[in-house]
């Protein structure tokens, strides 16, 4: 099909929908290099303003999946369920969640990304475990899932290459914040994984990509409808990201908190989120009949050690040092720990996730540009949560650093805690369920 | 100044104005190649949707002028006045107009473009004169103006190169139709010419770029305000482009009509437009005190042969065959002339300028892509104007072709004439004056 791209850009710009064949041709042409970046950038900006209807969205998602080689897991028994989070500060839930669900017999094929924002992504966290290799071929991944009921890997080049190319372009052309483009990007990657069902954790609040509940809800609904159009069961939770999730922010520090969680000793909030998301996954995997039952099963898997044992199994299978599960001190640690004191006495009313994230970024736990390497050992561990009472000078956080960025990080952290005399308003963790 | 371009794109996208220094940095970076096409394309689309305020517009125009070498005509006495038209079908006014105004002693430094739409531009028309060279250096141009009070040349590479680069990008990214981008593009080129004053002919109607009066008015006002901010006197006329302007459409054919016009034998409409635009130029050039006086002076220059004699002088000075002015048969002529008959009897109610333009394009008078060469001899000559009575089968146009595209052109022309029983509604040529 021969397309005249400037005319398609104008049509989208002027609010007219594009046909599925046109979208398919655009994605094929962009993947092959026939359509240059500058036309795709103009089109992405036109989509930002004009949006996309459901037909266009499904066509775009489908075309991105078909730009590469999708993973075929149909030979492996069971309903394969994954989770995707839109990302938040301190979000290490993937590790205990995937382990607990897999331990309960529901296969979890999980392909994750690196950090795009201020802190590391799931892959960066996994790589803080000595030896762990997230680079697995499709064949190896299928073998891991078959043997262990779980894989935790990075996106291979074969998976939705159009999405990868388009995402990199959007990142430098001010076109990231478009719900149709975000939704189709996430869903193309997830659907190409060969899953049967998906739970989405859509974060809302000042530490999240979506600051407002309305836009988060729209994103969630858009992704659910793409999933439905592809014949997959998808459920979404809108969850609070107005404060860091749990205590640790930083790669090895978050693995440590995850291990604590799988020993039944995690912070209240990360444990609760693991139970909620896990319950949804178990329902989709037909392992639980209700949210209550699902929560209970996950709680047991965390408390009886079966989740941790599954995690240890997959760490070893993917080349990692399994001993870290028994002795988290084998994880990399930073040379310096700096205590951050409360600047006044009172009740912790708020903890600004972006300031905590910036502090972690300054000491090397995240990336400023794609090419940056992360320091696995560095980051922040909070010592308090919202509602805790503190005295002036009492430690509220510990900064872990290796002699780089600690002054700037200290500045971010000192201003991260809002301390007041009044009892803070607590937000519910689960804001809304969408299915 | 170090700019983070994705952030500037996002700000413009979200409706926040950019600072003049930022706009300057963007244009400098784009001209030097530091800012890639894909970022500029996204920004242009953001401007399409979010617009630009006056401060941004002036900064953009200024930055594009400063991207190259502006022409310095300050050493040449007189108030130098140019005209710019937004382009229409059969618009050959530049030739008689510049000649008449220059003959009356007002210097006219005129830099024109090639055809961007279906038919040739002023440069293509001039080049249909054997030997005529529109490629003149800045030094040669200044010498022409000093000696003849006139030059008719093409844009040199030194003049507003950023505009040239940006225009080419907009052309392939669906971002042409943005009033701030159109206005700053036109005005940067014109202000870089070293003019003191400018008359704008903004076309409105189905044969024009601006189909609606409201958008044409906005474009005119935007350009007038850019001119004012640069300390230049600018006046704009909104003129009707609902039918081809005059009889001839095609390069040599239009030169021939221009020569007729400078002999006082031109069609009513092209003559009237020359008088109106000329009067405005004479007022700006302080050669006439009123529109009436200006019209009268132009009429005299056309009727007493002084405009034609000035045109002949500049044709010779720029290497062209001056004999064409005495004997237009020395212009290239097409091998074949095909008479187009009226398909029914009645009154000519409308002549579709786009169908006439398409016919001219089919026989080679215009370009489909920038790289096309135009055939100087081909085109269409109308034999009727709106309000004329015709019988079925009576000739209404003659198609001039060289054995290429004539079947398709004939089809366009047969459908170009709307013939009815009722007296047609006549539109005024001058719709509005803006200054």
Return the string of H and E elements of chain A.
HHHHEHEHHEHHEHEEHHHHEEHEEEHEE
Q: In DSSP terms, counting alpha (H) and pi (I) runs of 4 or more, how many helices of chain A?
A: 16
Q: What is the spatial order of strands in the main beta sheet of chain A?
A: 1-4-5-13
Shape of chain A: globular
Give the terminus-to-terminus CA distance of chain A: 37 Å
Q: How many E-type strands of chain A?
A: 13
Mean pLDDT of chain A: 94
Helical coverage of chain A, percent range: 40-55%
Strand content of chain A: 15-25%
Fold and architecture overview:
- By secondary structure, chain A is α/β, with parallel strands linked by helices.
- In chain A, helix 10 links the parallel strand 4 and strand 5.
- The longest helix of chain A has 17 residues.
- In chain A, the strands form 4 sheets. A 4-stranded mixed sheet of chain A has the order 1-4-5-13, with helices on both faces. A 4-stranded antiparallel sheet of chain A has the order 6-9-11-7, with helices on both faces.
- Chain A is globular, with a radius of gyration of 22 Å.
- The first copy, chain A, has 16 helices and 13 strands.
- The model of chain A has no long low-confidence stretch (mean pLDDT 94).
- At the A-B interface, helix 1 and helix 3 of A face helix 1, helix 3 and helix 8 of B.
């Amino acid at each position: 099909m021969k397309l005249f791209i400037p005319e398609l850009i104008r049509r989208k710009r002027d609010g007219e929908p594009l046909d599925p064949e046109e979208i398919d041709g655009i994605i094929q042409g962009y993947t092959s290099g026939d359509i240059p970046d500058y036309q795709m950038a103009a089109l992405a900006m036109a989509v930002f303003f004009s949006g996309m209807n459901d037909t266009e969205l499904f066509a775009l998602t489908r075309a991105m999946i078909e730009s590469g080689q999708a993973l075929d897991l149909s030979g492996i028994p069971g309903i394969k369920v994954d989770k995707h989070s839109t990302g938040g500060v301190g979000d290490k839930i993937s590790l205990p969640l995937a382990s607990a669900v897999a331990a309960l017999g529901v296969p979890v094929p999980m392909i994750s990304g690196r950090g795009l924002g201020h802190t590391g992504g799931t892959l960066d966290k996994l790589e803080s475990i000595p030896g762990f290799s997230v680079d697995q071929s499709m064949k190896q991944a299928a073998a891991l899932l078959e043997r262990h009921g779980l894989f935790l890997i990075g996106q291979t080049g074969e998976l939705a290459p159009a999405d990868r190319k388009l995402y990199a372009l959007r990142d430098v052309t001010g076109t990231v914040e478009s719900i149709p483009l975000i939704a189709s990007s996430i869903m193309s990657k997830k659907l190409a994984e060969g899953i049967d069902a998906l739970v989405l954790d859509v974060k809302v609040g000042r530490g999240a990509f979506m600051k407002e509940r309305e836009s988060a809800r729209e994103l969630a609904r858009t992704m659910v409808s793409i999933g439905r159009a592809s014949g997959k069961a998808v459920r979404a939770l809108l969850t609070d990201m107005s404060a860091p999730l749990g205590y640790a922010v930083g790669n090895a520090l978050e693995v440590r908190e995850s291990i604590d969680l799988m020993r039944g000793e995690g912070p209240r909030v990360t444990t609760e989120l693991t139970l909620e998301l896990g319950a949804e996954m178990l329902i989709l995997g037909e392992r639980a009949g209700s949210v209550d039952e699902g929560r209970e099963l996950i709680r047991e898997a965390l408390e009886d050690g079966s989740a941790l044992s599954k995690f240890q199994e997959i760490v070893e299978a993917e080349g990692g040092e399994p001993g870290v599960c028994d002795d988290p001190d084998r994880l990399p640690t930073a040379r310096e720990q700096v205590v951050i004191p409360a600047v006044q006495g009172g009740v912790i009313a708020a903890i600004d996730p972006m300031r905590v994230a910036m502090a972690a970024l300054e000491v090397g736990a995240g990336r400023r540009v794609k090419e940056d390497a992360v320091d696995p050992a560095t980051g922040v561990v909070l010592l308090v949560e919202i509602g805790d009472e503190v005295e002036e000078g009492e430690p509220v956080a510990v900064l872990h650093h290796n002699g780089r960025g600690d002054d700037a990080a200290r500045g971010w952290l000192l201003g991260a805690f809002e301390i007041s005399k009044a009892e803070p308003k607590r937000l519910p963790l689960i804001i809304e369920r969408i299915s």
